[in-house]
Amino acid sequence: MIPRFDLFVPDGDEARRWAEEELSNPRYADAKPTWFDLVARDVGRFLADLFSSENGANVGPSALIIVTVIIVAALITALVIWGRPRNSRAVRRARADLLGASDDRTAAQLRSDAERRAREGDWDSATILRYRAIARSLWERDLIDPAPGATAQSIARDASAVFADEADALRRAAGAFDDVRYLERQATSETYRELAETDDRLRARRPEAVPA
């Protein structure tokens, strides 16, 4: 006997709610083009239409050259004033691979989880999570752009270029992360306290220099 299944068909309101929930997923926002992508696309279309055989005959070569020079000059001016376009924060936050683990939590979430583990006396987990919070926070603020597979020490070096007077603290923080994560050394309340203080100072600071 062939089993029978009840097929649920949503009504209009239910289907619309499902669609809204699906489209609210951050992955759709991450795929949106930047403002520079939109401008470049529109300029490209305009130039393609302008230089088409139909419009080119009507406008004339001199006018086409003048228009092209004006557009190129405007784009160069925009780059000089606003700088080259950077990856949107949404796209940067969507990259979940950080410090050898797939983790899409924000810096605030990592920090909160670290505090919870610290209250439980789990200093190892608290130390690992707090350093991840430091790295994620710097990343979210566009102060560093770690390559895939970046180590704790390389992130500390990148951050030291932005906060030079925190170089020693960042190096110790990275060392604490490596000790617990890879060397399986036990962290202490003092280890975590120093990490948390470093994190708090960096959050309150404005960068001295932002890498290009």
Record the SSE blueprint.
Layout: H1 12-23, H2 26-30, H3 35-50, H4 53-59, H5 61-82, H6 89-94, E1 97-98, E2 101-102, H7 107-119, H8 123-140, H9 152-162, H10 167-181, H11 189-204
Antiparallel strand pairs: 1-2
Helix pairs in contact: 7-8, 8-10, 8-11, 9-10, 10-11
Q: Brief description of this entry?
A:
By secondary structure, this protein is mostly helical.
Give the strand content: under 5%
Return the structural class.
mainly alpha
Provide mean pLDDT, rounded: 77
Low-confidence stretches: 88-94
How many E-type strands?
A: 2
Give the C-alpha Rg: 26 Å
Number of spatially distinct domains: 2
| Physical arrangement of strands within the biggest beta sheet | 1-2
Main β sheet profile: 2 strands, antiparallel
> How far is the N terminus from the C terminus?
68 Å
What order do the helices and strands follow? HHHHHHEEHHHHH
The total of helices stands at 11
